[in-house]
Every structure is written in C-alpha cells, then in structure tokens.
Amino acid sequence: MPSATLSSKGQLTVPKDVRDDLKLKEGDKVEFEKLDGRYIIRPRNRSALEFAGILHRKGQKAMTVEQMDDAVSQELAEDNERIRAGR
Question: Is 24:41 a contact under the CB 8 Å cutoff?
C-alpha cells in the first residue's frame, strides 16, 4: 500500500503510482472529502470540455434550453401534485 510522510510545512508527496492511477500531473488540484470518518482524495484535473456530449443518446435530437426548462417545470409540477396528494 502506498504511503507518504507529512513535511514540517504540512505537505505530502503523492507516491508516483498513485499519481499515475489518478492521472495527476504538476499543477493539478485535488480535493479531500470526509466520508464516514475517512477521507477520499479526488483529482480536480478534468476540463469541463471532457464532459461535452456525455448525456447524448444516439438518434435523440438535442433539446433547447427552453425545452429543458419546460421539461423540468413539468416534472416539478407533477412531483408537487404527487406530494400534495400524499402519494
């Protein structure tokens, strides 16, 4: 299991195999999340452009922002009605 030693300045050197697994390179940022008393390290090195098209379904036409707003409004109205009806 990889390990690191905390320096007097509070710095850690991430072991090479961990950097490689996380695809970290110089200047990348990481975030730490506390979950059930443990910390998770997560790379913040992905560009928003990498996410372009991940929701696309083959053969499905792209929606306009107005269509998305209408769909969300409709779902919220239906959910509100369900809650009021006690279902």
Answer: no
pTM, two decimal places: 0.49
Which two structure tokens, joined as six digits, stand for 43? 């790379």
Given a contact cutoff of 8 angstroms between Cβ atoms, the answer to whether 40 and 51 are in contact is: no
17 in Cβ contact with 2 (< 8 Å):
yes
Helix (H) or strand (E) holding 38: strand 38-43
Is the pLDDT at 60 greater than 90? The verdict is: no
Cα angle: 30, vertex 33, 36; to 5 degrees? 155
Alpha carbon distance 46, 74 (integer Å): 33
- Say how far apart CA 75 and CA 68 lie, in whole Å: 11
Calpha distance 24→19 (Å, rounded): 5
